[in-house]
Amino acid sequence: MLRALTRQVGATFAACELTFLDRQPIDVAKAIEQHRAYEACLAELGADVISLPADPQFPDGIFVEDPAIVLDEVAIVTRPGAESRRGETESIAQVLTPFRELRCIREPATLEGGDVVHIGKTLYVGLSQRTNREGISQLAELLHPFGYRVVPVDVNGCLHLKSGACWAGGDMILANRQWIDASAFRDFSIIDIAPDEPSAADVLPIGNTLLMPSNFVHTSEILAAAGIDVRPIDVSELQKAEAGVTCMSLLFEA
User: Fold this and answer.
1) CA within 20 to 30 Å of 171's CA: 24, 33, 160, 207, which one?
2) Residue 118 annotated in active site
3) pTM of the full predicted structure?
4) Annotated catalytic residue within 16, 41, 166, 247
């Protein structure tokens, strides 16, 4: 069964961390509505949604993908690059304990799940402002006994690797080549995002459907032309917090 771990939007959401976006007023009530619709969409696509209550102590707590990486054999509890987010890992680890054995990333390493593109037995990991070389090295060491390969990918101009490249199913990668070193994906068929939609590479494959923000119309048309079933969803208020559709859920089989 596919599980989707999420966390509800808290009252402090507007105080979120921002790195590449200018701060804009966030309508928290609207953000809550959009997040509920996002959870409903995950359920419609076949996921059993585990929705955690909001934690006002952590404005970025809805981005549950960053504190952990869940694989079939093990879950890795990360050490976020944003110091304000490091307390988020404890509650996520507690929820994952019944499902997986846990391993932890240790100081001085930093690693966030948004930098990890998992395809089969390979994890492509972004070297970004949130994930450092030590984080990538520790991840490779922890996963070596399970037969995983860890491939570093340089990230420039965006928050996480998934901001610039995501698996789109099959042998396809959706990418903004201006933001990531696309040579790491040389064995894949790379689909380029629409030039006027630089943030459109963050997409979430669930079954045979690709979930993506509804405001990326041109990239959606490119994907549809490639034969991909696209499910658009309005996350416009959440995007003001540098959100994408991948970062608001942690998907795993259980």
Assistant:
1) 160
2) no
3) 0.98
4) 247
